[in-house]
Amino acid sequence: MTVNHHVRVHRSDENLPREGQLAWKIAEVAVDPVAVEADVTDMIINRVIDNAAVAAASLTRRPVVAARQQAEDHAVSAGGAGATIFGCALDRVTSPEWAAWANGVAVRELDYHDTFLAADYSHPGDNIPPILAVAQHTGQDGAALLRGLATGYEIQIDLVRAISLHKHKIDHVAHLGPSAAAGIGTLLGLDAETIYQAVGQALHTTTATRQSRKGEISTWKAHAPAFAGKLAVEAVDRAMRGETSPSPIYEGEDGVIAWLLDGKDAAYEVPLPAPGEPKRGILDSYTKEHSAEYQAQAWIDLARRLGTEHPELRDPANIRSIVLHTSHHTHYVIGSGANDPQKYDPTASRETLDHSIPYIFTVALQDGAWHHVDSYTPERAGRADTVELWNKVTTREDPEWTRRYHSEDPNEKAFGGRVEITLDDGSTVQDEIAVADAHPLGARPFAREDYIRKFRLLAEPVLAADEIERFLELVQRLPELSADEVRRLTIVAEPGVIVPGPKGLF
């Protein structure tokens, strides 16, 4: 069963013992030697495939090239064999924290991998690069890697269930630092004391504001989770050397909750697996069929269908207005409620368009499709009929869709809404969608063959056919992999794809 851990702010004179702290409870989950169940194993394999797919698609994008070059400019640290870098040859390795950095940026760049949404937001697949990098560097086998990844997913998802960061404009990667540190602790078989110190340090150093996802969204959006993963690796290294971290990091009177979140009177119930309970959190997460913010997934599916069934909706001359009635988050973060002029700017960055549901709905409606490159090009965003229709799309918060968004019942939880399109003659077209087609409760839930198909689609332009097959054969044997095989759990680009990146300080 799950145990709810009560978390509140404590005055310093209350002297909260570490055994009562959330960071210690996380460490206890990390050291629990429960077996990874078969369905969890299958889903972890799916997500490793998914991460490699979206990384392949981003290998030539400028932020990924820069991050990869930073990693290549760092030698392997003395304590291990090093870790591979997405796209590079198998023998081109670097220090694990820099591999976590480069691979984390590649995974996150296109906003195209898995998601979990509850009290806060997350992309739990961001745990994979740092945990895998440490596994390669330290010579861990597939079974150890599997256990580490199960912990990383579990801790991040449990934190996201209970503690809202975005409400206080703190970026969601503050839940990623602790989860990656815990996952690395499980991977290496560290004791609770060491993991506790690493979790505290990882949280302390990964709290930042959400401006990275606001206004003119910069390339840091992809780097932020990679930075958290890198710091998690460094936090574990520091803790393994016997160094301590701020404590109590969550509950202290000058801690994260008191000053960055709900304040000195705050209280949370954080659900964590009981001793001996399997770590199954990953099964509550879901991946993306489309390269866009997760709240856009269902809207893309609805828009594609509406545009195909009613082609007249694609012509702005026929439309007075399009109103998306949706959740608080969709309205205020990626909708017109954000009051960001950039969300209607045809010259905006890809990162900004990715967080504009008026733009995304318009293009999916007109094209009857969504493409991770073509749907974001300046030519596509600047098309006159698209700009005209785009400016007729607004969002509106609907309390019922907000309630369903926050529902803890997985059969009721929803990320879509209802669209009302008013035509020029005064007639209306209305429709609604609760979850994306690829969601476990959607019209076409993703299964192993879908993850493989996504990987092939995104990898074929940059990987040779035999490299695609090599990776797929290897990853689907993940629990059985030797340490040497884990070191080959990466993707190698065809000659000419990987080019030198820009020169910096290193």
TrEMBL record:
Keywords carried by this UniProt record: Lyase
Pfam families in the cross-refs: MmgE_PrpD_C (PF19305), MmgE_PrpD_N (PF03972)
Protein's UniProt keywords contain GTP-binding: no
InterPro entries, per database record: MmgE/PrpD_sf, MmgE/PrpD_sf_1, MmgE/PrpD_sf_2, MmgE_PrpD, MmgE_PrpD_C, MmgE_PrpD_N
E.C. code: 4.2.1.79
Keyword Lyase attributed: yes
Record domain MmgE/PrpD N-terminal: where: 21-267
Reaction it catalyzes: (2S,3S)-2-methylcitrate = 2-methyl-cis-aconitate + H2O
MmgE/PrpD C-terminal domain boundaries: 290-478
First-level EC class: lyase
Molecular functions (GO terms): 2-methylcitrate dehydratase activity
Subunit architecture: Monomer.
Family (UniProt): Belongs to the PrpD family.
The protein, known as: 2-methylcitrate dehydratase
